[in-house]
Amino acid sequence: MSSDQTTAKKKARKAKTPAPAKGPRGRAAPRYTPAEIEAIFAALAAANPEPESELEHRDAYTLLVAVVLSAQATDVGVNRATRGLFAAADTPEKMVALGEEGVADYIKTIGLFRNKAKNVVALSKILVEEHGGEVPRSREALEMLPGVGRKTANVVLNVAFGEPTIAVDTHIFRIGNRLGIAPGKTPLEVELALEKIVPEAYRLHAHHWLILHGRYVCKARKPECGRCVIADLCKSPEKTV
């Protein structure tokens, strides 16, 4: 355990946990102090200092396509499909030339592949015609592209451009609510809650740490608390250790 992680955990233990009083509009007060939140992210950072996206990509464009294809699909399945796709078309121009049927042939193992093929070709055409073949660096421009919503835009902004955005997928939504660090009824509520509580030093990699933690440790059916690096800090009622 690093000295920073140890210090953060000591501060967290010394700090008082907020009383479960009701706050504005009758909402429950936060379960964690700022020191405890700091300790949680310090532990996640110590366990994985340089987290990376598990979607295979070469640049901002291939990342954008991969994230669009990942909706309701696994990263493993998307990677299997995009290896062939990107070998054939790794630029917007090549993707437009490949066409919907050509794209569909490569991604037919992925759910909703026909609609996704349509979106990939359509967004590629817009990139060529309106953005000089480059992926735009603004959320507004990204969300104007077919098949691109807030989560996809956040992933691209974070991974491709180094923006400290938090893309809330099913794993982060579960972690935010299960641990109580950023509860919310919608992904946007969880995202905004995380933006308020994640210390600035950890914001760049926060969504990767939480995604990977939810994917491999704090799993949907049964959290594997016995090997969790934040088990001593976690206040989830589902904790088993």
Q: Give me the number of helical elements.
A: 11
- The CATH topology of the largest domain comes to Endonuclease Iii, domain 2
Helix content: 40-55%
Integer-rounded radius of gyration: 20 Å
Strand content: under 5%
Residue ranges: pLDDT <50 for 5 or more in a row? 13-27
Choose one word for the global shape: elongated
Series of secondary-structure elements, N-terminal to C-terminal: HHHHHHHHHHH
The whole-number mean of residue pLDDT values reads 90
CATH architecture of the largest domain: Orthogonal Bundle
Number of spatially distinct domains: 2
| DSSP E strands, number | 0
Broad structural category: mainly alpha
What top-tier CATH class of the largest domain fits best? Mainly Alpha
| Cα distance spanning the termini | 20 Å
Major sheet, described briefly? Answer: none
Task: Write up what this structure looks like.
54% of the residues lie in helices and 0% in strands. It has 241 residues and is an all-alpha fold. It has two domains: 3-52 and 165-227, Endonuclease Iii, domain 2, CATH 1.10.1670.10; 60-159, Endonuclease III, domain 1 (Orthogonal Bundle), CATH 1.10.340. α5 (92-107) runs antiparallel to α6.
